[in-house]
Amino acid sequence: MKVSAVVLVLVAFQAAAAAAVVQATAPGTPTVGYYNDKCNGSVEGIVRDTVKAALDADITKGAALVRLSFHDCFVRGCDGSVLLDPTCANPYPEKTSGANIGLRGFDVIDAIKANLESACPSTVSCADTLAFAARDASRYLSKGGIDYAVPAGRLDGVVSSAADAESNLPGSTFDVATLISNFAAKGFTPEELVILSGAHSIGRAHCSSFRDRLSAPSGKINPYFRDNVLAKDCGAGPADPTVENNIRDQNATALGNLTSYVVPASGGASLDNSYYINNLNNLVLFHSD
Ligand code: HEM
Fold first, then answer.
1. Secondary element (H or E) of residue 56
2. Which residues are catalytic?
3. Which residue puts its alpha carbon closest to atom 33 of ligand 1?
4. pLDDT tens-digit map of 27-38
5. In the chain, what are the domains?
6. Residue 152 burial (10 A CB sphere; 0-12, 13-18, 19+)
7. Which residues, at least 6 apart from 152, have a Cβ–Cβ distance to it below 8 Å?
8. What are the residues whose beta carbons fall under 8 Å from the beta carbon of 77, sequence distance 6 or more?
9. Are 39 and 123 in contact (CB under 8 A)?
10. What is its main location (predicted)?
11. Strand, coil or helix: what is 237?
12. Which of 105, 117, 134, 162 has the fewest C-beta atoms lying within 10 Å of its C-beta?
């Protein structure tokens, strides 16, 4: 998969999802450079610098931001509603949904928003903040290979429901037909589904998200990977540890002969096309992969 293809689809991802939310919440259409004439043109730079500082301190936060944006955009469009905390009036917002297991990176969004508020109060929506942050994390993790202009000017959503998240987000046990129809409902082609799934070259997952794979037949998953890597990492008890999504990032000692399949990060960029190579070798975590 060429990086340029990934870029195009990420742009489409945000544009399609942004269009959905704008129809629901605002008359305007998001535009590239929306904040250029606000806050001395410093908005996107503040986001970029804060994301860079956060990833310099903990690079795993990059994957968190990419997934956060996906999970925001797939539920009522890119309206920031995934960021809302439970309240007495709304005890079950999106982030409490089981489909949002492991969602993290909220602290990075809070840090960006604090910096934005200090430089230009009440100017930048949380929805735009998250969309910019995911782009900047993608650029950081791909060493500049993935970069795209983000249309902005979104309003923040005020509705956030766990039930909406459950019914819109894809599940890790979905088969290909269900995934295709889930993505088609958001305007994506099967090819775009495949391209976007390449994001699983980064990040991590809870064992509960792929426990079904520990008993999957050998034709569906490399049996050494299943029995000697994943099963050992996950254990049989009630604990639900996390495992790296990409075999490249897993403990090399445990991999045994599988190290011959490991695709080194290209030029240090972890957001690359290794997911597809892993996939062809039955070395990915989820049934949906
Ligand atoms: C095709 C359907 C998809 C399914 C079923 C799916 C499912 C999952 C699951 C179950 C996890 C692990 C959650 C956990 O156990 O903590 C995960 C992680 C992740 N997903 Fe997906 N995903 C899909 C598509 C995508 C897309 C389109 C993106 C972004 C463009 C994405 C980005 C990520 C990232 C970056 C992580 C790691 C997050 C972290 O490290 O915190 N996924 N995904």
1. helix 43-57
2. 71
3. 67
4. 579 999 999 999
5. 3-169 (1.10.520.10), 170-289 (1.10.420.10)
6. buried
7. 30, 31, 32, 33, 34, 35, 128, 131, 132
8. 17, 18, 19, 20, 21, 22, 24, 157
9. yes
10. secreted
11. coil
12. 117
Return the residue matching tokens 């983000």: 150
151 is in an annotated binding site: no
Pocket test for ligand 1, best of 200, 202, 209, 234 (most atoms within 8 A of CB): 200
Answer yes or no: is pLDDT of 17 > 90.
no
Per-chain mean pLDDT for the chain? 92
Q: Helix crossing, 43-57 with 61-73: angle to 10°?
A: 130
Position of tokens 């969309």? 131
Residue with tokens 């993290």: 104
Is-contact 17 74, C-beta < 8 A?
yes
- For residue 186, give the nearest of 18, 22, 74 by alpha carbon: 74
Report residue 99: phi and psi, to 5°: -65, -15
Say if CB 204 and CB 103 are below 8 A apart: no
User: φ, ψ for residue 245 (rounded to 5)?
Assistant: -65, -35
